[in-house]
Amino acid sequence: MPNLLRKYLSGLSALVFPEICKGCGESLVSGRTALCRKCESEMPRTFFEKVSGNLVEQMFWGRARVEFAFSLFFYRKGELLQQLIHQLKYKRDIRAGTYLGQMTGRVLLKEELAGKFDCIIPVPLHPQKQRLRGYNQSDIIADGISEITKVPVNKESVIRTVHSASQTRRGRYERWQNVEGIFKVVHPHLFHNQHLLILDDVVTTGATIEALCAAFSEVENVRFSVLTIGIAVG
Asked: CB of 140 within 8 A of CB of 88?
C-alpha cells in the first residue's frame, strides 16, 4: 500500500507541477529530467571521447601525466550548457548536476571507458566556498556518473587548502600561479596503483586540474585521466 500511495502521489505531483525542460520550457515526458530529447540533441557535443590527442588532452601535454582526457560538450557563454551549470552552481539546482552526470555516465558506458577507472575524484572546493554554496557542484556531477557506471567517488581524500581568487579573468600563467600548491592528498595510501578519473565541470586552461594532479606527486604508481562536462571555447 505505501508503494502504491507513493506512485499515486508522484503521478499527481507530475500533473500539478509538471517537469519543465530547462531549454525550451515545454513539459517533459515521464522519466525525463532537465531537458527534452530535442534540446538534449542540440547540445554541442565534442565527441572527444573518440579522438586521441583531442584538445583537452593537448592541454596537459608536458604539464601532467594524463592518460586520457575529454570534455562532453563545448561550453560557450549564453548557451544552454552555461545556463545548466550556472543553475547548478548558483541557484541550488541539484537536479541539473545529476542530469549532467547521468548523461556523462551513459557516454562512459557506451564507449566502454568506465571499467578503466578505480575511482572518480571531483575537483574539491575550499571548505569556505563549499559552506557558502552548500555543496560542491563537481560532487553532484560525480554522483550522477557513479549512479550510472558504479565507479566509486572519493570526496574526502583530497582537500583544497587555499581559498584562491576567481580564475575567470586570468590568463594561463596567472591561473597557474593562482592554484599552485592549493591541493593536498590526505589519504595517499588509498591511491597506490590506482587509475583516477579527475572530474571538473568546465576546463578553460587546465591549470586547476594540473595543480590537482601535482598534489599526487608522492603517490606511488598513480595514473590520471581527466573528464569535464564542458571545454570553454569562444
From this structure: yes
Residues 172 and 205 in one domain: yes
Cβ burial 13-28 (10 Å sphere, 16+ → b, else e): eeeeeebebbbeeeeb
pTM metric for this prediction: 0.87
Counting the structural domains of the chain, the total is 2
Same domain, 135 and 198: yes
Q: Which residues of the chain have pLDDT under 50?
A: 1, 7-15, 167
C-alpha cell at 155: 570526496
Shortest CA distance to 51 belongs to which of 39, 66, 76, 69? Answer: 69
Same domain, 33 and 127: no
Rounded distance between C-alpha atoms, residue 15 and residue 64, angstroms: 51
DSSP conformation class of 114: G
Q: Is 66 in contact with 74 (CB distance < 8 Å)?
A: no
